[in-house]
Structures are given as structure tokens and as C-alpha cells.
């Protein structure tokens, strides 16, 4: 079915189900192949990429809304997510629906609550919804042009993750259960957008005493197999409560 | 005029002027007499304290709304303010207006965007609005019971200020133009909720090189007059961009 018709068909029930003027946009981060990636959808007929988003049911709070939207897209439950900012500029979205009747649900003014989510890449199976024809991971240094103000929503999410690296379980939620020290360092480097000295990073991480070194190493590859680590959940949580005060 | 009548009289124009379901609540911090204080209003007839708040005009974004609300209360312009969280629980406010008609503006479900504001205490002159009979500063360690979920809005604001102490100009906006080192340390201690060693604090602050020592000292008092300092705005801003990575 064409894009316009789908929106028009959904409009009446949207007015009934959702709070007006309020939307949720999700910046979903995943870490794969030593790259930080973000989940994007592509709108049918329009050659435009967008962050996955949705609306808030009259019977739920915004975190429940974000969880529901995430689950619909990724099939995953209990995803780590945090709201980080409301985007409320006039005409941030209305112009996109110029061709439609003024009564169309999507054409009203929307203020959008931005959430960021951190997912374990291996746990996700993507779902393409009825108004999209693609739902894919894109590396954050190779993002296509995004619709509306979604680029600034993404930028703000990344800055927030960077600032929260020292007091939220960012690493825990992006890495698989077992990981190597170079993988952990690479994740920190991408989020902080700077190279870190290997020896310093290693020493600081060990001083925080939040890792358990496992009695196994990564298989495959010609080089010496790197050691595998896990987070010590109890110690990690305690360290986050105090904050990693040293910086990187 | 009585509380109920005032709300009923305002209701129709509120439905016309404002976005439904959306409010703004402001946690306004000031620093006076070595104490961190927050601005509270007292509702007419109800013996209930609240954070100053208001609604979002259909023609403004939420920052403009918060600025307008702050100016109405404090007379001050260009106040430093930051949104920090949306409070969206079901029934967070509706129950408060049980006795009223369902069409009353105030009785709908509201999601509230929390802003914190930092003001120079000496620049503010308080205004009591039509539904309040008091508007006063209260020390944060002696807050009265607050209505609805305003206590958790306040708690979250304080945690946010604490976390942002190293990358937002918190000190600059709370202190008067000229201040002593003990005043600066005291402000940091209150926000961080812990005692700091005087020598360490002094050394760290000087190492960041963000202060200008003035050629004058605080007059009055029997003891040796303490030196006065100002922030070096250019260096302070640069230091904030990098973040104070050492912690306190």
C-alpha cells in the first residue's frame, strides 16, 4: 500500500489511542565489528532515513512507550534505555506532511522525547514496519542524511552517552557477555572520539577492579589469542555509583 | 478570589493558548549565606508547597516557555537553565483536582518537563502569582513537603547539577561576580554532598587555572579578610569544554 494511504488509514485510531503533540524518537546503539552503529529506518517512497520512533499511549508513561517501540523494532525486551532530551522547535516536523489534510494525525505539531538505547548486537532481530521499506544498522561515521531534526537528535544522544560513560553501564550494555580488552578500549575510543593509550587504559581499568579475567581466550586468527573478560557486575555497579572520577 | 474560581476562570483561555498535556516545572537554585536554596511557591488555601511551573504556548518551544515562567516569577532575564527530564507517570497530577469538572484545564493528564535554573541570588525579585500566597527561598536541607511528584523532580534536578558540575558553568551562575575561595568550596561541597579537603580543593582549582585573583579582599569581620576571586571566563569555558576530568 502506498505511504499516503497508510498514514490516512491510521490517523483516526491514532487520535483515539495516543497523547496528541507528543512523540518518542529512539537512538539505538549497537557495537559490531569494532564499530559503533545506530539503527535507522527508511520511509517508503521517500528516499529518507529516520530514527525509529512512535507515540505515547494515553495509558502508558514515556519509558513504557519507548520500550514498546524498541520491542516492535528489535524483538528484544529489557533493553537498556534512557531519555535524554525533549526536541520542541516549532515546525520541526509539520512541514514534512504539507501535502496532507490538516486533520491527519502526523501533521500536528510534535514535541519529541529522545531516548538512547544500548543493545547487545547479537540479541536483536530487526522488524520492518508498514511505513518503512528498510531497517538497518549504519556505522555512526557513515550516516546518511536524516529527515527532520533527526541528525541533531542523534548528535545529542552521542554527546549524552559520552558524558555518561563514567556513571552509567554503557560498556556492559553494548558489549557481548565476554569481550577482549582491545574491544573494550575500542568502544571507549569511539564514544570518546579520541585515541587512548593502550597501557594507560589497561592500568586504569584494572585499578577500578570491575573486570573478571576468564580462563579462556578468543579463538581463531593468526595472532596470539587475546584474553577474554567479563564485567564483575557487583563491583561495576558500585564503581558507577561512585563515578569513574579519573577520566580517560 | 478563591483558588477554585481562579482556576475555572482561566480554564477556557488555557485550552486556547497552550499545548494540552504538557507542563514545565522549574527547580530554581540560588546560593546565599553559604546555603544552597530553591524557590518554592505556596498554593492559596491549600497548605501545599510546589515548584514554580506553567504551560507551553502553542507558539513557543519549551525553553522559551521555561524562560517566560522564570521571568514571571523572578523578574530576571537571561537566567541559566537546562531541561533535565520528563516526568510522565500516570496520575502524577490528575488526582489533585478531583473536586473539579473534567473539562477543567488543570485536570487533564500532564507530562512535565523539568528544568533546573541557576540564579545569582542578588539579581532576583520574587513575584507571587494569582494562585499562590507565597513565593520564598528554602534551604535544600530544610525543604517542606512538596505537592504531587515535585519532591522527585527536585531530587533529580540536584543529581543532575551534581553530575554536570564538571562540564557546565554551575559555579559561574550561582556565585556573585566576586567570591572567596571558601565560598566556592562550600558551594562544591553542598552540590557534591561531601566535605572536601581545603588544601586539595585549592590546589585543584588553581591547577585548572580558571580563576583571577583580585587585588581586593572581603571587608568586615574580625578575622583576616579573605581574598576575592573572579572566574576567568575564557579559560573557564575552555576548561568546561574539556571537562574537569580529575573529579573532586
Summarize the structure.
Chain A is an alpha+beta fold and 248 residues long.
Features:
248 residues; elongated; seven-stranded mixed sheet; 10 strands; three-stranded antiparallel sheet; alpha+beta; homodimer; 33% helix
The largest β sheet of chain A comes out as:
7 strands, mixed
SSE order of chain A: HEEEEHEEEHHEHHEEH
Number of helices of chain A: 7
Task: List how many beta strands of chain A DSSP finds.
Answer: 10
Share of helix among residues of chain A?
A: 25-40%
Instruction: Supply Rg of chain A.
Output: 20 Å
The quaternary structure here is homodimer
Chain pair sharing the greatest interface: A-B, 27 and 27 residues
Give the overall form of chain A.
Answer: elongated
Structural class of chain A: alpha+beta
Give start-end ranges of low-pLDDT stretches of chain A.
Answer: none
Distance between the termini of chain A: 51 Å
Query: How much β-strand is present in the residues of chain A?
Result: 25-35%
Mean pLDDT of chain A: 89
Could you explain the architecture of this structure?
Two copies of one chain form a homodimer. Chain A is an alpha+beta fold. In chain A, 33% of the residues lie in helices and 28% in strands. Chain A has seven helices and ten strands. Chain A has helices at 3-17, 62-74, 150-164, 170-174, 181-192, 198-208, 233-242, and strands at residues 18-32, 35-43, 49-50, 53-57, 80-87, 111-119, 132-139, 179-180, 211-217, 227-231. In chain A, strands 1, 2, 3, 4, 5, 6 and 7 form a seven-stranded mixed β-sheet that branches. A three-stranded antiparallel β-sheet of chain A has the order 8-10-9. In chain A, a hairpin with a 2-residue loop joins strand 1 and strand 2 (35-43). The longest helix of chain A is centred in the N-terminal third of the chain and has 15 residues, at 3-17. The first copy, chain A, is elongated, with a radius of gyration of 20 Å. The model of chain A has no long low-confidence stretch (mean pLDDT 89). The interface between A and B is medium-sized, with 27 and 27 residues.
Amino acid at each position: 500500500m502506498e505511504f499516503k494511504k497508510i498514514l490516512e488509514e491510521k490517523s483516526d485510531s491514532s487520535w483515539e489511542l495516543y497523547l496528541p503533540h507528543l512523540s518518542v524518537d529512539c537512538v539505538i546503539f549497537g557495537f559490531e565489528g569494532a564499530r559503533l552503529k545506530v539503527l535507522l529506518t527508511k520511509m517508503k517512497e521517500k528516499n529518507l532515513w529516520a530514527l525509529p520512533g512512535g507515540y505515547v499511549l494515553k495509558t502508558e508513561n514515556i519509558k513504557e512507550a519507548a520500550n514498546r517501540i524498541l520491542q516492535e523494532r528489535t524483538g528484544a525486551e529489557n533493553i537498556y534505555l534512557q531519555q535524554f532530551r525533549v526536541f520542541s522547535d516549532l515546525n520541526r516536523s509539520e512541514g514534512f506532511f504539507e501535502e496532507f489534510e490538516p486533520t491527519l494525525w502526523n501533521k500536528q505539531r510534535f514535541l519529541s522525547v529522545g531516548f538512547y538505547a544500548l543493545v547487545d548486537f547479537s540479541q536483536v532481530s530487526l522488524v520492518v514496519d508498514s511505513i518503512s521499506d528498510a531497517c538497518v544498522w549504519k556505522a555512526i561515521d557513515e550516516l546518511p542524511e536524516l529527515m527532520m531534526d533527526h541528525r541533531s537528535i542523534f548528535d545529542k544522544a552521542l554527546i549524552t552517552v559520552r558524558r555518561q560513560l563514567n556513571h552509567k553501564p554503557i560498556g556492559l550494555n553494548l558489549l557481548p557477555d565476554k569481550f577482549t580488552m582491545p574491544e573494550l578500549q575500542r568502544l571507549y575510543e569511539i564514544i570518546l572520539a579520541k585515541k587512548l593509550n593502550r597501557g594507560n587504559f589497561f592500568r586504569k581499568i584494572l585499578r577500578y577492579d570491575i573486570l573478571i579475567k576468564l580462563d579462556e581466550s578468543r579463538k581463531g586468527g593468526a595472532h596470539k589469542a587475546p584474553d577474554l573478560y567479563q564485567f564483575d557486575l557487583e563491583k561495576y555497579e558500585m564503581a558507577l555509583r561512585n563515578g569513574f572520577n579519573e577520566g580517560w
